[in-house]
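INFO batch 0412 | record 1 of 1 | parsing
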Amino acid sequence: MGGYVFNSVWERVVKVNPLETRNIEAKFLKLTEELGELAAEVIALRGQTYKEFKKEDLIAEMADTLLMIFSIFSELLNMTDTDKEELFASCEAKLIKWESKIRYYKVK
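INFO prediction complete | emitting tokens
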């Protein structure tokens, strides 16, 4: 997803999130539901179920999961008076660490 699209989706979630009636705990429960649905699509992708794999269903479940994560993160940032730049800076640091570990294990 391009940076513009990513930011656009994030900003739309931030706008709609305050209108959401679910509390943070309910959002976490909804996230686990979405993860389960995504897992079912991955199982279908791998051909390990009776369900026929459909790319559109996988993409839809990925979107549901990502949007719920954005919703939770937006609320947590708001609850802690934190901005997305702090979150993304932490993501950058974690990604650098992850990349260095991958390079280390590939060299071994």
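INFO post-check: The radius of gyration is 17 Å.
INFO record closed
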